[in-house]
Design goal:
Blueprint (H helix, E strand, L loop, with lengths): L1 E4 L5 H10 L3 E5 L2 H14 L5 E5 L12 E4 L3 H14 L5 E5 L10 E4 L5 E6 L9
Parallel strand pairs: 1-2, 1-4, 2-3, 4-5
Antiparallel strand pairs: 5-7, 6-7
Length: about 130
C-alpha cells in the first residue's frame, strides 16, 4: 500500500499505480485538487487500485503503508519526519522528491524522468535509528 501525502493533482499517485502495479491512497487537503486527482485516476484507468481522500496528511494513519511518496517543502518534510518514524513499519520505504527527509539517511538517491532528485529511505527496526 502506497500513500502519497499531499498528492496535489494525482500525477504521482496515478503513475505509481501504473508503473509499480501498487494499490495507493492519495491524501490532499485542497478540495479542488482532490477533484482533479480523482479525475486523473478515473481517466488514467487507475481508479480501481487507487483513491484520493480529502484530508490532512499530518493526521492520516500510516500504519498500513508499505511506502510513502512525498513531494513537499522542506518544512513539511521536517514536520512529517517524526510521524513517519513513529507509524511506519520496519522495511517501509519513503520516496521524497526534491527535498531530503530530516533525520533520515537515504539508502538510494536517483533522478526520475523529469530530472528531480529522489531520496529513497527505509524505515529501520525499533532498535535501530534511521540515521
Amino acid at each position: 500500500m502506497v500513500f502519497d501525502l499531499g498528492c496535489g493533482d494525482g500525477r504521482w499517485l496515478s503513475r505509481t499505480v501504473k508503473d509499480r502495479k501498487a494499490r495507493a491512497i492519495g491524501v490532499e487537503i485542497d478540495p479542488f485538487r482532490v477533484i482533479v486527482s480523482w479525475l486523473r485516476l478515473v481517466f488514467s484507468g487507475t481508479s480501481r487500485c487507487a483513491k484520493v481522500v480529502w484530508g490532512n496528511m499530518y493526521e492520516v494513519d500510516l500504519t498500513d503503508a508499505d511506502a510513502v511518496i512525498l513531494f513537499l517543502s522542506e518544512e513539511a518534510n521536517a514536520k512529517l519526519s517524526p510521524k513517519l518514524e513513529r507509524e511506519l513499519s520496519p522495511g517501509s520505504r519513503v520516496a521524497s522528491f526534491y527535498h531530503k527527509l530530516p533525520g533520515w539517511t537515504p539508502v538510494k538517491t536517483r533522478k526520475n524522468r523529469e530530472e528531480y532528485e529522489i531520496y529513497i529511505y527505509e524505515q529501520k527496526g525499533k532498535n535501530e535509528e534511521n540515521k
